[in-house]
Structure formats: structure tokens, C-alpha cells
């Protein structure tokens, strides 16, 4: 009888069955060990899977935290109104303000901002990508373009060269007028390409740059990265588009450097820059010439002369002097320095005139097309044509602010500044009717009105200035 039948009968009778043969015990033990091994393996695999999943999620979280731009193609506009300083202009009541200041605007928002509306003068509107739109000149130009019915989209990286809160306030003002300002960098070639492909831009107004003459002594690489590499990035993006936009960009009066002829004409030599800033702007003009020649790009360079006015740059002399006068702090003047101070509204009219008269890009060159009468690179001075002693400018500020400045007059150091600037604007007058109309007295009055309102200054509470003159001022007056 089979062994298992005997075991069943024994169990039925309550008799303990005899132990199985030795080889069966060994087989049973092997099976138990194998089963335990499978359980252990399954548990280990489960733990390994959970650990791997946790590590992956942690890496994704850290990657998203540090490199959000690589995981998303959406744009980030300027900050929400709640993060803007309380001394900004009131937020718009329109819905566009909320949409255009969102953290992730859609392409439809960008397209809406880029689309021209009906022009007041009855002409065909243009669509302009404005780089440096949250900057001083960029914000004013964007507002003027939008006011006359043109499409405008801004681009700005909101860097900390001067207070980003002022740039955010300008962007808030632009958004209240329906202008989208994208938080991005001109050296991001992929971003520029997506923008120029997504919207039907007819023009690029390239105003983004690292400004300031003396700051170059501390951070020279910033000037090369922005004013040289950044310009190449913009021109590359424009040149590679099937429908190339015309490019108008900001050069500078500083390219005249140590030129001693006056007034400065576009035909004067510009091969003796006095600062690294000037050298990068001069390099930009040479680069622009190459892109105009090779790619058939329509390019216009504008040499600005000491632009000032409301919403200006805090690092500019007139702005810094106003703050020091209000605070009772001393100011340093360079003996004999004269500047061709140009009011912002006059410069804006010049920028719009250059945009309106820019010819179409023709393509060609290495792109394989056939050039059709490529227009040469255009260069224009945009100045006021009336140089003023910097000391006189300070005197106007003293009168407007109701307080004397504590002046310290020194000899001009070799830090990149030049003794004087004086613009000849006959070429711009001939080609697009540029004629500055704002005197320094009127322009500074407009600036001080904005300055006092923006910073909530009560001029009546400013303390009386000291009557003691510095030795430097006495010497300078003799």
C-alpha cells in the first residue's frame, strides 16, 4: 500500500504517523528554504522599488526647484501687483493687468500684446519686440508705441544693477496699458527664436544693455556678456527668421570717446573709446555692420546723449544728485564737466522715428537668398544739441527741491568719463524729422515732480542745509 495511505489511516485512528524517510525530510527543508528566499527576495525588491521611487521624486523636486526654465516652455512675466512697492502708480482696473502679470501667461496673451490695434494716425501698425522694456528708455518707448496703436511685447531680465523694484514698477505700469513684459534674457537664443516665431514682429527695438561707465571697472564681464554677446544673440535670432524683422538698437554717445571735435557728428572718428562701456558699444556697431552686410538685416543704431526724465535710472548723475540733496548728503562734481542732457520724450520720438523709417530686411548672404538692394547700416545721434555745465544742472535741482547741495568739486579722474558731449542731430532731423524741444529746466521739473511723488517726499519737511561751504567749492568758485 502506498505510504501516504498508511499515514492517512493512522491519522484517522489518532495514531501519530511515523516520520518520513530521510530524503523526504531533506526535500521538505529545501522547499521551505526556497520559499523563505522568495519571500525575502520579494520584500527586498519591494523595498528597493520604493527607495528608487523616493530618490527619483527627490531628484525631480530638486531639479524643478533649481532649473524651472528647463522643465517648462512657459514665460514668466513681471511680479504680481502685491509684490510691487507701494510707491508705484495705481494698478489698472482692466482685466489685462491681471492677465499680463500672471506667472504663466499663454501664447495667446503674448500674441494679443503683439497685435497692433487701430493707429491714431490712420497708418498701418507695426509689431515691436522691445528688449530692456522694464528699463528707463524701454518702458517709455513701449508706452508710446502702445499709445499710438502698435503691437508691443517686452523682454527684460530684471537684473540687480539698480533696484529691481523700480523695474518691476515700470513693468506694472506697462501691464496696466496692455503690454506684456516677459521675464527673460537676451542671451537665451531659444527664447528669442520662440518669440520671433510665435508673433508676427515686424521690428525689434533692442534697448537691453549693461549701462554705466564706472561700473565696468568692477564688473567688466557683464558688459561683454550683455552689450556684445547679447547683441549677437538678438541679431542671430532676427537673421535666422524666414521673415526678418528690422532692428533698431541703442548705441551710445560714449563711442565718440576722446574725440575733441564739437558738436559730435556721425562722421567723426569713434576709434578711441575712453571706457569699456564705450568699447562694447563701438564693437556693437561693427557687429551690426557685419550682420547688415551678410544677412541683409535692416539695422539702425541710435547714439543716445545723457537721457534723463521721470522713471529714470538711479545711477545717473541727476537722479543720484536729487537723492543726495534730499538726504543732505554731499555730492561730487567733476570740474568743467558739460553734458548734452536729452529729455526722455525727445529720445522716444527719435526711437519711433527710426522704427517708422527703417527699411525692410532683404535676406541673402549665407542664408542662400538673393540680396535685393541691402540698405546700409544707419547711425543717428539723438541729443539735445545744447551742452550744459553739470554744476548748472545741480543748481536747477536745488531750486526745484528747495535745498542747497553740499558740493565737493574735484578734477575728473581717468575712470571712463569724458569732459563734454555735444550732439549734431542734423542727420536724424533730415531722415525722420527729429527735433528736441524740451529745455533742461522743463525736463528736470517733470523729473522732480515724478521723483517727489514716487518716493513720497515731503519737501516742506526737508531740514535746512548748512551754510558752510566746502574748501573744494570755494576753490572752484575763485
Automatic annotation (TrEMBL):
Membrane-crossing residue ranges in chain numbering: 47-67
Cross-referenced InterPro entries:
Epimerase_deHydtase, NAD(P)-bd_dom_sf
Q: What does it catalyze?
A: UDP-alpha-D-glucuronate = UDP-alpha-D-galacturonate
Gene Ontology cellular-component terms for this entry are: Golgi cisterna membrane
According to the entry, every stretch annotated as the NAD-dependent epimerase/dehydratase domain falls at 128-357
UniProt key word Transferase = no
> What is its membrane topology?
Multi-pass membrane protein
Of which family is this protein a member? Belongs to the NAD(P)-dependent epimerase/dehydratase family.
Q: Which domain of life does the protein's organism represent?
A: Eukaryota
Q: Where in the cell is it found?
A: Golgi apparatus, Golgi stack membrane
Q: What is this protein called?
A: UDP-glucuronate 4-epimerase
Organism, per UniProt?
Answer: Leersia perrieri
Amino acid at each position: 500500500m502506498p505510504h501516504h495511505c498508511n499515514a492517512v489511516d493512522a491519522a484517522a485512528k489518532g495514531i501519530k504517523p511515523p516520520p518520513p524517510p530521510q530524503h523526504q525530510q531533506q526535500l521538505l527543508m529545501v522547499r521551505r528554504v526556497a520559499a523563505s528566499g522568495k519571500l525575502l527576495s520579494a520584500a527586498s525588491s519591494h523595498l528597493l522599488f520604493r527607495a528608487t521611487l523616493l530618490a527619483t521624486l527627490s531628484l525631480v523636486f530638486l531639479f524643478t526647484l533649481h532649473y524651472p526654465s528647463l522643465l517648462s516652455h512657459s514665460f514668466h512675466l513681471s511680479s504680481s501687483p502685491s509684490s510691487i512697492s507701494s510707491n508705484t502708480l495705481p494698478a489698472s482696473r482692466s482685466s489685462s493687468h491681471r492677465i499680463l502679470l500672471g506667472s504663466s501667461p499663454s501664447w495667446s496673451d503674448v500674441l494679443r500684446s503683439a497685435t497692433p490695434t487701430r493707429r491714431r494716425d490712420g497708418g498701418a501698425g507695426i509689431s515691436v519686440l522691445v528688449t530692456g522694456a522694464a528699463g528707463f528708455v524701454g518702458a517709455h518707448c513701449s508706452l508710446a508705441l502702445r499709445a499710438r496703436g502698435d503691437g508691443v511685447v517686452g523682454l527684460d531680465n530684471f537684473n540687480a544693477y539698480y533696484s529691481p523694484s523700480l523695474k518691476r514698477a515700470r513693468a506694472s505700469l506697462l501691464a496696466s496699458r496692455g503690454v506684456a513684459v516677459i521675464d527673460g534674457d537676451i542671451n537665451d537664443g531659444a527664447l528669442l527664436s520662440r518669440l520671433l516665431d510665435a508673433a508676427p514682429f515686424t521690428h525689434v527695438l533692442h534697448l537691453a544693455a549693461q549701462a554705466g561707465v564706472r561700473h565696468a571697472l568692477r564688473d567688466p564681464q557683464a558688459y561683454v556678456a550683455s552689450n556684445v554677446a547679447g547683441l549677437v544673440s538678438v541679431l542671430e535670432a532676427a537673421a535666422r527668421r524666414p521673415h526678418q524683422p528690422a532692428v533698431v538698437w541703442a548705441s551710445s554717445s560714449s563711442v565718440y570717446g576722446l574725440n575733441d571735435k564739437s558738436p559730435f557728428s556721425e562722421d567723426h572718428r569713434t576709434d578711441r573709446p575712453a571706457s569699456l562701456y564705450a568699447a562694447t558699444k563701438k564693437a556693437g556697431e561693427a557687429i551690426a555692420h557685419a550682420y547688415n552686410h551678410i544677412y541683409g538685416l535692416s539695422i539702425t543704431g541710435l547714439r543716445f546723449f545723457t537721457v534723463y526724465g521721470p522713471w529714470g535710472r538711479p545711477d545717473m548723475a541727476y537722479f543720484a544728485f536729487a537723492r543726495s540733496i534730499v538726504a543732505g548728503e554731499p555730492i561730487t562734481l567733476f570740474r568743467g564737466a558739460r553734458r548734452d542732457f536729452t529729455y526722455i520724450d525727445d529720445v522716444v520720438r527719435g526711437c519711433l522715428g527710426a522704427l517708422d523709417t527703417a527699411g525692410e530686411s532683404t535676406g541673402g548672404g549665407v542664408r542662400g537668398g538673393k540680396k535685393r538692394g541691402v540698405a546700409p547700416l544707419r547711425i543717428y545721434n539723438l541729443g539735445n544739441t545744447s551742452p550744459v555745465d553739470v554744476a548748472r544742472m545741480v543748481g536747477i535741482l536745488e531750486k526745484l527741491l528747495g535745498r542747497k547741495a553740499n558740493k565737493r568739486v574735484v578734477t575728473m579722474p581717468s575712470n571712463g568719463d569724458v569732459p563734454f558731449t555735444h550732439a549734431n542731430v542734423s542727420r536724424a532731423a533730415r531722415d525722420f524729422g527729429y527735433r528736441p524741444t524740451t529745455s533742461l529746466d522743463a525736463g528736470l521739473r517733470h523729473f522732480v515732480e515724478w521723483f517727489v511723488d514716487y518716493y513720497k517726499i515731503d519737501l516742506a519737511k526737508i531740514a535746512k542745509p548748512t551754510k558752510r561751504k566746502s574748501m573744494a567749492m570755494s576753490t572752484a568758485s575763485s
